[in-house]
Structure formats: C-alpha cells, structure tokens
Amino acid sequence: MVSISLRNVCLDYPLYGAYDFSLKRRLLGQLIREPGEMRIIRAVDNVTIDAEAGARIGLAGPNGSGKSTLLRLIAGVYPPSSGRVTVRGNVVPLLGLNAGVNLDFVAEDNIALLLRISGRKPTRSVIDAIWAFTELETRMQRVPLRMFSSGMLMRVLFATATAFPADILLLDEWLSVVDEHFAEKAEMRLLNLVSQAAIVIIASHDQPLLRRTCTSIINLDHGRIASTIAVEPPATHAFGLREKRA
Ligand SMILES: Nc1ncnc2c1ncn2[C@@H]1O[C@H](COP(=O)(O)OP(=O)(O)OP(=O)(O)O)[C@@H](O)[C@H]1O
Fold first, then answer.
1. What residue numbers bound the domain in which 26 lies?
2. What pLDDT, in 10s, does the model give residues 171-200?
3. Among 7, 41, 112, 129, which has the highest number of CB atoms less than 10 A from its own CB?
4. CATH code at position 194
C-alpha cells in the first residue's frame, strides 16, 4: 500500500554563514546564551501530513515558506531534525537541477548513479534509452555534467528520473530551463507518469494550476501548515504543467 505519513516533522538548516567574528560576543555568548541567538533556520516546523493512494496534494506558500524542503524530506534527501517521516512506495523526485548529481562525473556515470540510487540496474540498453530521450549528441555521454548548459542538464536529469513509473511523484518548480521542443516531449512523459502514480505532490506558486490538479492544497507559512484546503469538486487531474514555466 502506497502512503506518506509525516508526524510533527521539523527540519533545521544549520546557518554556516552566521558565524560571529566578534571574539567578545562569542565568548560571552557561550556563557550567557542569548535567547535571540540562532544558528539554524527552521525551514519545516511541526508538520503533520497523511496521504494515501489517490491523493493529489498541492503545496503553496510564499518564497521561503518551506515547500521545497518539505518535498526533500519526503524524498529522503534530508532526514528530519525531529518527528517521523514514513514513506511506503517508490518515490520519483523531480526536484530541480541540483538534485543528487555529481557535476564532475560524466553524464553516463551520473545516469548510472541515479538509477542505482532509485534501485534500478543501469544496463546499457536502459542508459541508451534514457540518452535517446535527451536528444543530445552521443559524445556528450562522456562529458562531465559541469560542462552542460542548464537546459542540457535538465534534459539528462528529467530523462533519468522519469524513465520508470513511480508510486509517488514529487514535483518542484520544474522544466523552467528547457526549450519549447523538449518541454512538449517532457510534458507528455510527465502526464503519463502522473496518471500512473498513486500519490502526486506538487509545489507551485500557480494557484489555478493547483486548484485544477489537486485534491487538496496545503498552504505553508514559515515552515508551518497555515491551512489545508480541500479542492471541490474533485479535480480532474488534467495537469497543465506548461503553465508552471516562467
Ligand atoms: N540549503 C539550505 N541551507 C540553509 N537554509 C536553507 C537551505 N535551503 C533552504 N533554506 C531556507 O529554508 C527556508 C525554506 O526554504 P524552501 O526552499 O524550502 O522554501 P520554498 O517555499 O520552496 O521557497 P520558494 O517558493 O522560493 O521556492 C528558507 O528560509 C530558506 O532560506
């Protein structure tokens, strides 16, 4: 049974840049422990969510409200700082350009790595099929990802992430850098994946898109759930993902 359960989940990012260069304040801070002194950002704050098969959940909220972080928690990219995350089913996270690749590795090795992480065997034929979808030149397979343009990198990540069906599909801001031709191709592949997935969670600033596609919308504010809206009548799940593009 596919399901997602978050129980009182918090995620704190350490604030490495917030180092205090004043020796006096640092020494006194150790002794006094000023209450206002923070060395973390609480990006997700005491969030509880349950999702069963059939759920189409939208995550809304202003910049920095914790949408991407919440998706990353569900994807297992970050462990929660506190609380419990239980996910049953295989997850395909489409979380953007910096998701789990090593830019110094050549494209082919990154594809193999991403497949292994998601429990798939990176056979020659699987890698070739993924590469064919990217429509990039064959020689680029042996080029480090660092030398790819954003759009080329997105093609490789998208083709790899969507090569197999998912129980749970997580969509963040996506497809913003690919050209029109690839976007159309990608959208068709994505729609197919969405229709097969048991649970879809989509983070977006596009309220009409969320209302059209989701069964409920969770509004986040400073990492907390400010409200949850049931979308009535039940959405048709006709994803119009192209409207998400900038
Ligand atoms: N890698 C990181 N290190 C430190 N803080 C981070 C990191 N990523 C995000 N944050 C902080 O966590 C908070 C939530 O960020 P997050 O990216 O989850 O928000 P968001 O709702 O997805 O924003 P947006 O709508 O702009 O994409 C913000 O305060 C942000 O500054």
1. 3-244
2. 886 656 668 888 888 878 888 888 889 999
3. 112
4. 3.40.50.300
